[in-house]
Every structure is written in structure tokens, then in C-alpha cells.
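Hello, quick one for you while I still have it in my head. A protein chain has come my way and I'm curious about its shape. I'm sending you its amino acid sequence along with the C-alpha cells. I'd be grateful if you could look everything over and explain what you see. Here's the protein in full, and shout if anything looks odd to you:
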Amino acid sequence: MKHLPTDLEIFNEIYSSYYKKFTDFSDESRTRNHKNFVPLDIAQIAKNLRIDPDIIFSRLYSLNLKHSYSKDITEFNLFLNSMGEERHCINFPYMASILADLRDDSRKHQAAIWVSIFSLIFSALSLGVSAYRLIAVEVPKNSTNQVFPVPATSQYQQGTTVVPPRTMPIPSQLPKKSNLETQPQSPK
């Protein structure tokens, strides 16, 4: 599938190709009818962007509809199919201001993407470090590779408070009570 150039790519191509032609205008050596409207070679722009010229023309026409406006009795057009004898003329200063906005939006979008990528990487590293600490550092194993080792002095044997879950002895290692201790004694 052919790459369809964005508005930004089309305007960048026009700007880089026609900026010198726009600035070379003078009243003494008139190379075109109007300073602001620069005639475009649609076929050359399409060739540079590797796309059919009709697509470029249609895009410029639709961009004209999108960006043109009228104020009082004056019309401001971005693109004109013909202006006197010249064909396919673009309002170069107006296009440059639209291009500046598109570039600014593109920079903001790219900055947001890079911040998101950095945040994702940072989150993944934090998760990895937390998982490593949980698995490799904080879970000690005794010589029998049991997850919950018996503390050196069991708090159950001392008759004090309940031991936190990580240090609870395994039930098979608790001292067994004799039958005498477990049977209720009758009152005398």
C-alpha cells in the first residue's frame, strides 16, 4: 500500500521547494502576478512525494476548503486553481503559518509519545526491581528449603503474641502436647 502523505508532509515539501521562489519576488523583476500567491508545479511535488498528482491537487483543494475564510467582503484562500494566467497558486505566507501550527502540533504529539515511552520503561523497571526484592531478597529459606522457617526462639513456645505470617513455624515443627495437657481435668 502506498504511503499517503500527511498535510504536514505536503506543506513541508511545498515550503522547502518554493521558499526561495517566494522570497525572490520584487516589483522590478516580476516573475509572477502576486507576491503572496506562488504558482506550484503539482506534478513535481507529487513526484517528490511519490504519489499521483491528482491526489496532491485534490488534497490542496480540500485544504483550501478547510482553511479558507472570508471577512467582511474579503476572501482569504489558501489555494487557487488559477490566478490570471498562473495555475495552481498557493498563498505562501498563509500556508507557512498553517505549517508552523502543524509542526508545533507534531512536536507536542512526539513529546507526549516519548514521555509515555519513558514512563512505561520506568514502570517496567520498577516492577522488575520490586519483584526481584520480593522473590530473591525478602523470602529467606532454611536448610530444608521451606519457605517459612522456624524462628530461632519460637514465640509460640514463649506463650506471647501471634507471630507475623512470614515467620510462622511450620505446624509439623511445633512441639507436640502430651495427652495429659490436652484432656480437661476434673475439679477436685
